[in-house]
C-alpha cells in the first residue's frame, strides 16, 4: 500500500492594530492569574480557546483572521480589551510597598530563586505537582509585592507526562513535545546574539540556551540543551522533568545549579540573597564558591561567604524526594568541572555525604552550603530538624537552625472569579488585605443565600466539567456515553444537590488515596443512601516508575466501574492545574489522608478552603496549623510507632465516623431554604480563617522578614573587604574544630540548692578551653519549671554566664540569677562556640552540657 505523507501548514493571522497588545498579554504569565486576560481570548473564539488548552500564544497562531477582525471592530470587546490593558499597565507600574522596601531595598538587594520545576498555568507544562505549583505561586506573590526577585529553572521540551487511564484502569503515560514558540517564553539575547552558557561535563562541554519568561514584575530564566552545539544525547538532557536515570538527573542538576549561576552572571544580575528551593538546585553553591575563590579566598572562606547569603528550603520527609547519588557518579559527572574550577573533590563530597557515608545527598549539600534553612509547615519543620539533625550533631533537634514557613497559595490564581466578584461588591479593598485576619471576618456579613448561590454555581460548573472529561475518557475507551451518564447522574442532579468530596493530587503511596476504602461495605452504605447520597471524585498522576502508585489508580478505577458503586466514585485522568481549579472550587469537601508526618505541607486543601470547600484531613502538614475545631474536620494521626496496618484501620474508622455521623448529616440538614445553615457557617469559618493565613503573599513576606532580609545582611557582611570577615570566620571555625575535642566543663559548688524567691543564686562553671578563649564561647544556663501549675511557660529561660577569672588553664564563668519560676525548677548548663559573625548561634553544631 502506498503511504501518503502529510505536510502540515499553519496559516497564522495578523493581529489587527487595534488589538496589537494581545501579543504582549500572551507573553506575560500575568494571564495565569488574571481572569480578565484569559477572558479576552476566550471571548474571541471559545471553542478554539478550549482546544488549545488555554494557551494564549498557540491561540494567536491558530485563530482565524476574521475572528480577530470582528473583535477589533466590536465596541464592547474593545472596551473590555482597554479595561484589561489598563489593569495590566497599572499592575506593572505599581511600586513595592514600604514593608518590602524597608527590608529589601530594590536598589541594593536582589533575591535569586532556584527550582527544578515551576507550575504557573496548564499552558506551560514544566511542573509535576505541589513543588512546582508552589514555586509558581512564590514568583507570582513576589511580583504582586514588588520584590526584587529573579528566578532560575529548566525548560523541558516534553515537561511531565500526559496521563490517560485505559479500560483496565492502567495508567498510560504519553509525552508530548512543545516547541518554544507555543510557550510564554522568548529567547534571551546578549550583544545581539542568542545567549548561551557552557558547563564542563565529563570529556565535553554542554551548551545551554536561555529563555526568559515574564511573570508580571519579575523574570524567570530557563535553560535547555536542545541546541546543535551539543551531541544528540546531551540535546535530550532537558527533555523530561524527572525523566531518565540517575545520570540524567545529576546532569540536569548541574545545568540548573552551575548553568543557572552562569546565566545570572552573563545577564549582570547581582543577587544578594540566594534561595535554593529543594536539593535539585544545590550545585549552585559550588559554582558560587568557585567564583568567590577567584578573589583569592580559600574554599572554606568562600563557603562561609556563599552560605551566609543562602536559604535552603527542604520540601519533603519522604526519602524518594531527596536525590542521593553514588560517589562514583558524582566523581564522574562533576570531575571535569571541579578540576577546571580548582575545587577539591573530597571537600566537595564531604558537603553532601552523611557522616562517613559513601553517597552524596543533595539535601545535605543544600544544608551545609547555606546558613538559613526551613521546612514548609510547623510539623515538617520539626520533622526535618530531626531528619537532618546530624548536620549539627551536638545540638538538640528542637534547637537546630532548621525553622519553618508554612506554604501558602496564590489567591488570584486559585480563587474562582465568582468569589472575587462577590468580594468586590462586599468590600473592594479585599485584595490589599490578604494578610489581615481581622479584615476577613467580613465573610460573616455575606448573606447565607448569596454565599451558597456562589458555591452552587461553581459546583454546577465543576459537574459539567466532570461530565465532559469523563465523556472523552469513556468514548476513547469504548465504554461509551451510557457509562458516563450513569457515572455522573448523582453528581449533576440539581434537585438532590449531592454532597461531593474531592481527592486530587499525585498518587504517591504515602498519600493513601485508598484509605477511605478500608471498610468497603460501610463506605458503600454511606455513599449510596438514596436520601443522602455522596460522590467521591478522584484525580492524579503516579510517577511512571511508581507501580504501587499506579496500582492505586487501578483500584479506584475498578471500584468506580462496580455496579453498586457506579455514580458514587469517579476517577478523572490527566490532573493538571486547570482541573485543579475546577475541582477545588466546586466540591463541598476536600479530602486528604496522608500518612503522618509525610505530608510536608500540602497546598491543595488551602486552595479548596479559600473557595469555600471544607477540609477533611489528617492533622499533618498545613492542616496541623489550619484546623481550629470549627473550620473543617480533622483525623488525629495514630502514633507512628504502631503497626502501619493498625494505624490505617484506626484512621480510616475515624474518617468514616466523621463522614457518617457529622459530615453527611450536617450537609443534608436543610430547611426550606434548600441549604444547610450549619454547613454554610462552617464554610465561612473555613474561608475567613484560612484565606489570610495560608496565602502566598503571607508566605513570601515571611520569607522576606525571617530569611531574605537577614541573609542579605549576612552576605554583605561576609563580602566586606574582599571577604575578610568570611576568611576570619572560616579560620575561627577551624580553630574551634581543632580545639573542641579537648574542651570540657564542670560545675562548681551547689547542684541542689534553695533560695527565697526574691533573692538570687550564684552559678559557677569551670571550663578547660584547650586554647580557645572566653570570647570564643558562650556559657549558658537554661531554666525550666518542673511543674508549671498555673504558671505559663514558653520554653526555657536563658541566662548567660560571664567570665569571672582565669586560673591557669581553667576559665571560670559565673552569673547571679533570680529564680525565674516559683517552686521547683531545673537548671541546665551548657557551653558552645560563639562568634558575632555567625548567622545562627548554633550553626557549628558543637555543644557541651554539664
Ligand atoms: C495544588 C496542586 C498540587 C499540590 O497538591 P497537594 O497534594 O495538596 O500538595 C498538585 N497538583 C496541582 C495541579 C495543584 O494545583
TrEMBL record:
Positions where N6-(pyridoxal phosphate)lysine occurs in the chain: 607
A Pfam short name: DUF3417
Record-annotated DUF3417 domain positions: 15-123
MF GO annotations: glycogen phosphorylase activity; pyridoxal phosphate binding
Catalytic activity: [(1->4)-alpha-D-glucosyl](n) + phosphate = [(1->4)-alpha-D-glucosyl](n-1) + alpha-D-glucose 1-phosphate
UniProt cross-references to InterPro entries, sorted A to Z: Agluc_phsphrylas, Glyco_trans_35, Glycogen/Maltodextrin_Phosph, Glycogen_phosphorylase_DUF3417
Keyword terms: Allosteric enzyme, Pyridoxal phosphate
GO BP, sorted A to Z: carbohydrate metabolic process
Domain of life: Bacteria
PANTHER family according to UniProt: GLYCOGEN PHOSPHORYLASE
Family: Belongs to the glycogen phosphorylase family.
Protein name (record): Alpha-glucan phosphorylase
Organism: Marinobacter salinus
